[in-house]
Write a structure and sequence with these properties.
274 residues, alpha/beta, Glycerol-3-phosphate (1)-acyltransferase, 9 helices, 41% helix
Length: 274
């Protein structure tokens, strides 16, 4: 029995191997004032709802998924079609795994729980500031993430390897963004191998994940509150699992190649020059 299939929106992405938004058109206010419309609905809707639950110790997995899918719905109401491919890869692994992805915006942090958690337990590797900031902090802390400071690479590696192995042994998969910061452009030279190292140490497979989420832009003053672009597609693509052999150099290169190829493909499909 899957506790997320209960007739509510939490089952949104339990659609087999792929999900594609139905034809939706943004309303007048969303088209004229997209960021105002989106953030007002976001903070008065799923963020407030989930923060209240977190304050009462009720931010469980079901609530996390519900709020995550709610955010996906808000993006669709902006006229941003959501496309998810390769979800069979999430189910193909017998046991926990590492999801290794590029990091483009705040949106994937909100949306990935709704895609992955109905199929398997999961948490994130996150920077420390996300666990202390208003609104998001209590929610993120409730998810038992692996926390890194992003100031001392050696300490971060130790935290990821030790904390990652502990969670993986408990059966919890982990989402890793090996980039130093969010970026709409993928640079493999800024994409470290920390996910591959953890997978090798814990002897678990890696599921490469390419994503394009720049419909939610990065803010100049507050990175999490950037401009929202109605009509821009939101895309995720999971690759079949990889087993790490040797030092993992080939697997790391394969992850980078998968992400770069999909971003280039999506840019062409969306009429954007790479």
């Amino acid at each position: 029995m899957n506790p997320f299939v209960d007739g509510d929106i939490s089952a949104k992405f339990l659609t087999g191997n792929a999900y594609r938004s139905p034809g939706l058109r943004a309303g007048l206010v969303s088209r004229m004032l997209p960021s105002v419309s989106f953030y007002s609905h976001l903070f008065l809707g799923p963020v407030r709802w989930l923060c209240r639950r977190a304050a009462r110790g009720l931010c469980d997995d079901a609530a996390w998924v519900y709020a995550s899918v709610w955010v996906a719905d808000l993006m669709e109401r902006l006229g941003c079609p959501v496309e998810v491919q390769g979800m069979d890869a999430i189910d193909a692994v017998d046991g926990p795994c590492l999801f290794v992805a590029n990091h483009m915006s705040t949106l994937e942090t909100f949306m990935l729980p709704g895609i992955i958690r109905p199929r398997r337990p999961v948490t994130f590797v996150v920077k420390q500031s996300l666990t202390t900031m208003p609104f998001f902090g209590p929610v993120m802390r409730s998810r038992d993430p692996i926390v890194v400071g992003r100031t001392n690479p050696r300490e971060d590696l130790k935290a990821v390897l030790e904390g990652g192995v502990e969670r993986l042994r408990k059966g919890t998969s982990i989402i890793v963004f090996p980039q130093h910061t969010r970026s709409p452009v993928f640079d493999p030279h800024q994409f470290n191998s920390i996910g591959i190292k953890l997978a090798r140490k814990a002897d678990v497979p890696v599921v490469p994940l390419a994503l394009k989420t720049d419909a939610w832009g990065t803010g100049k003053k507050i990175k999490e509150l950037g401009p929202v672009k109605p009509g821009m597609a939101v895309r995720y693509s999971f690759a079949p699992p990889l087993r790490v052999a040797g030092q993992g150099k080939e697997e790391h290169a394969a992850v980078c190649r998968y992400i770069a190829e999909h971003l280039a493909q999506w840019q062409r499909a969306d009429g954007v020059n790479g």
